[in-house]
């Protein structure tokens, strides 16, 4: 049964382990969340994010600050949760994770420099196919914590790119070149680009390039998770 139908009938069951949720829990139980591989601090996460993107992508993505809450492992409970969020249309779950990420970002002062939040867009066709852009919902959650606007319209996906799954870093880079276009209204702002999971950094880098071309003053990035080296 599709997860959203299951949730209509059993709204108080964990999406990962299917055990009954406590009144204070939403979508995912505390035991499953405790299994996620969380970074110790925003600064530790930023260092790993920088280093990982540089080694996987070649260091062409420069960002002011980078936030990332979890390391993502294959076949983990976090993977199940993110899968449910992405493909089963659990909007509120994506927003909740965004809000938590935003609160975590506020544990340092760096997040206060951000002026505008922009999610990495899905192509219009893909959005219909998947029904919602999870990066946008995560961005909305971050926006609620940071009290900042989410401006999805400032960055558009110009063309439909083939799925990135199974492509090498070089192929991803080629697949995404020129895929995004930023609005002129981005000029002079400190932009926070938001995505769900960073794999090679190719998507973020392509989006970042468009943001820079649009004349943004600074660029920072945030994602729920960074894919661990398997
Ligand atoms: Zn659970």
What small molecules does the structure contain?
zinc ion
Q: Give the CA-CA distance, first to last residue.
A: 30 Å
Question: What count of helical segments does DSSP give?
Answer: 9
Q: What's the structural domain tally?
A: 1
Detail the poorly predicted runs.
Answer: none
Cα shape: globular
- β content, as a range? 15-25%
The residue fraction in helices comes out at 40-55%
Number of E-state strands:
7
Strand order of the largest sheet: 1-2-7-6-3
Write down the CATH topology. Answer: Rossmann fold
What is the C-alpha radius of gyration, as a whole number of Å?
17 Å
Mean pLDDT: 86
Q: What is the CATH level 1 assignment?
A: Alpha Beta
Helix and strand composition category: alpha/beta
Order of helices and strands: HHEHEHHEHHEHEEHE
Largest sheet features: 5 strands, mixed
Q: What CATH architecture do you see?
A: 3-Layer(aba) Sandwich
Describe the structure.
This protein has helices spanning 3-9, 30-35, 42-57, 77-87, 91-105, 124-130, 134-146, 169-176, 202-213, and strands at 37-38, 66-72, 116-119, 155-157, 180-182, 190-198, 218-227. The longest helix has 16 residues, at 42-57. It has one domain (36-227): Rossmann fold (3-Layer(aba) Sandwich). Helix 9 links the parallel strand 6 and strand 7 (218-227). Helix 5 crosses helix 7 and helix 8 packs parallel to helix 9. The strands form 2 sheets. The protein has a 5-stranded mixed sheet with strand order 1-2-7-6-3, with helices on both faces. Strands 4-5 form a two-stranded antiparallel sheet. The mean pLDDT is 86. It is an alpha/beta fold and 230 residues long. It is built from 9 helices and 7 strands, in the order H-H-E-H-E-H-H-E-H-H-E-H-E-E-H-E. The protein binds zinc ion. Zinc ion binds at residues 14, 16-17, 19, 28-29, 31-32.
């Amino acid at each position: 049964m599709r997860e959203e139908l299951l949730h209509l009938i059993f709204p108080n069951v964990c999406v990962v382990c299917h055990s009954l949720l406590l009144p204070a829990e939403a979508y995912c139980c505390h035991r499953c969340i405790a299994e996620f591989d969380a970074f110790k601090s925003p600064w530790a996460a930023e260092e790993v994010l920088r280093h990982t993107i540089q080694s996987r992508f070649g260091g062409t993505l420069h960002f002011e600050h980078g936030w990332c809450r979890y390391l993502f492992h294959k076949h983990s409970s976090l993977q199940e949760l993110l899968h449910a969020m992405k493909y089963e249309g659990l909007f509120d779950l994506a927003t909740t994770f965004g809000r938590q990420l935003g609160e975590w970002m506020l544990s340092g002062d760096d997040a206060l420099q951000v002026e505008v939040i922009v999610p990495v867009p899905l192509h219009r066709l893909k959005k219909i196919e998947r029904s919602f852009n999870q990066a946008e919902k995560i961005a909305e959650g971050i926006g609620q914590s940071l009290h900042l606007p989410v401006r999805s319209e400032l960055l558009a996906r110009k063309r439909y790119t083939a799925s990135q799954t199974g492509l090498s870093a070089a192929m991803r880079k080629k697949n995404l070149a020129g895929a995004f276009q930023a609005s002129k209204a981005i000029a002079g702002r400190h932009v926070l680009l938001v995505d769900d999971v960073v794999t090679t950094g190719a998507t973020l880098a392509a989006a970042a390039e468009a943001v820079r071309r649009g004349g943004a003053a600074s660029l920072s990035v945030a994602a729920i998770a960074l894919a661990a080296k398997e």
